[in-house]
Design brief:
Helix 2 (about 35-45) packs across helix 3. By secondary structure, the chain is mainly alpha-helical. The chain folds into 2 domains: about 5-100, Helicase, Ruva Protein, domain 3 (Orthogonal Bundle), CATH 1.10.8; about 105-135. The longest helix has 24 residues, at about 110-130. The chain contains 6 helices and no strands.
Length: about 160
């Protein structure tokens, strides 16, 4: 019975060590040239699966992702550069296919919105700090002072 915790711990360590990102690339897709395959994998990790949307085509098992992986490899085998492959796929599927959109006229709002929101928040905080007024608390009247003394005097007797 004492071996069970150690076996479970070893299994957990093994899963953590070897349980990285699963790639969906099929053996028939892999290029024979290791340099081209490395480029294909790098490009595949930059392209969004249009079915899964938050996975790269390298990680997705969807049929469209497979078609895109094959297309990337075909373009690389024809001699296209990485940029040409990306441009070709973007021309067919739009900027949304890129997991990291490029900075362009179409994506300025996407890239600038976080900075604009941060700036607006900072301005709002500064404005609220500057316009904060200290509230003057009016002094107690004689009647209020007497009532307070009576309450305090009664508490001392208890």
């Amino acid at each position: 019975m004492k071996k069970f915790p150690s076996i479970a711990a070893a299994a957990l360590v093994g899963m953590m060590a070897f349980g990285g990102i699963a790639h969906a690339v099929q053996p028939d897709e892999v290029l024979k040239n290791p340099a081209l395959e490395a480029r294909a994998r790098a490009l595949s990790s930059e392209l969004r699966c249009m079915v899964c949307q938050n996975q790269s085509i390298d990680q997705s098992d969807a049929d469209l992702a497979r078609d895109l992986r094959v297309l990337v490899r075909e373009r690389l085998m024809k001699g296209d550069s990485d940029e040409q492959v990306l441009d070709y796929i973007v021309s067919r599927y739009g900027e949304f296919v890129l997991l990291k959109p490029r900075l362009s006229l179409h994506t300025v709002l996407l890239w600038g919105a976080p900075l604009a929101l941060l700036l607006c928040g900072a301005i709002a905080v500064l404005y609220s700090i500057r316009t904060r007024r200290s509230v003057e608390v009016p002094a107690l009247s004689e009647q209020e002072k007497q009532a307070l003394e009576a309450i305090l005097h009664d508490d001392r007797k208890v």
